[in-house]
Amino acid sequence: MVNVAVIKFFRTLLCLAFALGMTLAAGQAQAQDEASVELQPAEIIGEYAPGELLVKFKPGMPSNRIEETERDLGVYHLRTIPRIDVRLMGIPEGKSVPEMVDAFRKSPWVEYAEPNYRRYEVATTPNDTYFSSQWALSQASDHDIDAPEGWDITTGSASIIIAMIDTGIDYLHEEFSPGKLWINSATGKPGYDFGMSDDDVMHEPLSGSGHGTSTAGIAAAATNNSKGIAGVSWASVIMPLKVEDSSGYIYDSYIADAITFAVTNGAQIISMSLGGPSSSATLENACQYAWEHGKVIVVSSGNENTSVDYPARYPTTIAVGATNEIDNRIYPGNPGDDWGAGQGSNYGLELDVVAPGINIYTTDWSASGEGYDPGSYIATFGGTSASCPFVSGEAALLLAKDPSLSNQRVRSIIRSSAQDQVGEPSQDTPGFDIYYGYGRINLYNALSSPTKPDLTLTSSDITFSNNSPSPGETITISATIHNNGSVYDEINTTPFASVLTNTGYGYYVDAGQSIAQSFTATTDGYLAAVDLAMWDCGADSAYAQIEIQTDSGSKPSGTVISSTEERDWSSSSAWERVKFPDPAKITAGQKYWIVATCSHSNPNGYAWLFDDDSVYAGGGFSWRIGTGSWATESTTYDCQFKAYIYAYDTVVRFYDGDPDGGGTQIGSGQHLSPIAPSGAKTASVQWAAISGSHDIYVVVDPDNLIPESNETNNQAYKSLSVGPAEVISFTVTDYGSAGVQFGTPDPGIEDQPADQAPTQGAVTLTVGAETNVNCNIQIKGTDFTGAGTIAIGNAKWKKDNNVSGATAMSTTYITIDTSTAGVQKIINVWYWLTIPGGQTAGDYTSTFYYQAIKPP
Asked: Which of 370, 351, 361 is nearest to 390 (CA)?
């Protein structure tokens, strides 16, 4: 039975945005577009435990306030899921689950409340013939995962524990001999049974399938033991965590308990061949907890031939789809085998990879009358349930090879090493696609890939825009950085800017409308992804377009600095991650905007949850209709978001001279987004050339923040000779060739600026024998402190001796054309010195010097 409830929402009136100078008619017309309506209750999809709900109170809530709320609503506390502080509640008789969910959501003390959703085994009834060899591991036509080739590198380690959160396991099976299963020290038995709250993970009488036994065998059955099958990771230890009760039901509370148990008891990998259509804050919370503690979470995508299930849809997981013996995604009517009518491998933007998922030969319940088949093995296990443990085993092999790998790095290697374009060309398109993700997994590719990046450059990677510059000439210095190692595109798990709380309301992003949320960057780097709390308000397939724009006057500028990504949210409010393949380069202290636009014609587009209580520091909210003007940034509303940068920022610095020997840094450090394996990216700076010989050094990752396989090849240099410049002969009149001393006013000065002190001078330069050339005149000098060059704005020049109409010298050099016949070659330069407060002209003893040189 499916219970459905509707959760109210509204759109906030933005009448104040129209209060300035608008006619009543215009105000009424626009108010209809921007009118806020009461928030519709989020649709509850799927089955859930009757009489139960999951509630999380806001952090820091005192226990007496929690107990008071529970008493007022008539519920009773069953237990608390540890580590994530979610309370399982029993509801009073006569009350429905949707009714109580709505009641809790109205409480200002509650972070969220939701049903205790039921999940399902993601398996398909076996329907194919016995297959004597495990085609998924090795197949003549090579639609397999290249397991034997990978085993040449490693067969796994007993130090790696895979938590199989499933229906239990037959721990008497010959493939799970002593030492193969993790033993719970508190009970002396394998794992734990959260479905029955006891210590026996063997199947209860009513469960009747070998699902958990089958998935465990794929991941890590005992191998090379002269019997049975081969598991992907031969030596890994299995932690069986049963989440099925005596009725054969799997609930979110069981799963969340099992996840946190796996984390606290040392499992490195969590494998879940289960899922359902409903988002659960409790499951998301548990997965986030596991991810933040470094665990690799692998989940099957689902078998309904629709969007990816939960919890596979969460950004903390690796979502796995299924392929058949000819590498086609499994769905009805594909050119190869399928699971039957109405069943297919789920797909979507959240999908990471695919793996074999039909006719899989694996372990089955060995007791008489139990399991799928009469014997101890099954040749026809299938579904994304089968695909998931292949990836869990792959993760175990990667960690066996390099235990220092982070969960993000494991996921990145699994993605980048997958074989692309192995399936139907219409679905398996180049690069990432929604049907195959990054491709079908390949153990050999993954295990032979470097596990760390190796950023390097040589002298030949450094180039100059001019290899023979003159002194003072501005040139571009470029350096190409290569990555000879693995991918390192991990995203920081902690957002650097976010709005996480809301009052339960949302603002529409209707057809043709745009909504924007601003934030101020707290660090330099590349914005890799944003999480947005939105939902689809219509029944159609409307989608939102998300991008990052710069700021202009506290409004989106229209300048897009990221790729524009499309996303179709579910019909109930949910967090979804939008990752930018072309990330936005951000600078600390600068304001940016997350812009969401609904381009669909349906008027019921999207709603973006917002907070109207405490606005995020440095952020705010704006909106517009069509291509009209953006509204003034709100100081009242904030849309919910989380913004993330890459964990590793590729910094490149340039130096004039050896940085370890006192070399001078050129410009500021340059930032590059992560460089793909075997890829390269270029960084550049501008430099005003200085006369002499120079060794230009380039250093990548100068602070050693990126863990690399080789830290010794991050630096190179290239020599460059500058000048000297050819000096044009000239004479200096009025004050002598030694220079012009301050404090000697020119009695002939005209039109002296009123804001300048009367300390000035003038000099006349006469070009000598050179003809048919331009000449640059450079003014140099230091002020009385010796701190630097006098402001160039205090000098003017002209080709005659009248300062009236003279041109201000706005650059270091001025170019005078002396090549035209009949043009006077005498240049007059006037200067003024602004006396700082408390100083007099007598305090200035330095000299201005003049030199004319040929331009570059």
From this structure: 361
> Rounded distance, CA 500 to CA 285, Å?
13
End-to-end CA distance of the chain: 82
Pick the catalytic residue from 146, 166, 245, 551: 166
Give the C-alpha separation, 63 to 69, whole Å: 10
- Average pLDDT per 10 consecutive residues for the chain, totaling 856 residues: 24 24 32 35 75 92 90 91 92 91 89 88 43 81 92 93 96 90 95 93 65 96 89 96 91 97 97 94 94 96 95 95 96 90 92 96 82 83 97 98 91 94 93 94 92 91 93 92 88 84 74 88 90 76 85 94 86 81 91 87 74 66 84 84 89 96 94 90 95 94 89 92 61 37 34 34 47 45 38 53 58 48 50 50 43 46
pTM: 0.69
Residue 277: its H or E element: none
The answer to whether 368 is a known catalytic residue is no
Which among 280, 376, 385, 562 is annotated as catalytic? 385
> Taking a C-beta distance cutoff of 8 angstroms, is the pair 699, 659 a contact?
yes
Which distant-in-sequence residues (6+ apart) come within 8 Å of 454 by Cβ? 483, 484, 485, 708, 709, 710, 713
Question: What is the rounded CA–CA span in Å between residue 107 and residue 104?
Answer: 5
Q: Which residues pair with 166 in a beta bridge?
A: 242
DSSP 497: E
| Spatial distance between the Cα atoms of 826 and 798, rounded to a whole number of angstroms | 9
CB 740 within 8 A of CB 848: yes
Among 143, 173, 203, 211, which one carries the catalytic annotation? 211
Beta strands per DSSP E along 122-191: 161-166, 183-184, 189-190
Catalytic residue status for 385: yes
Closest CA to 36 of 477, 612, 678: 612
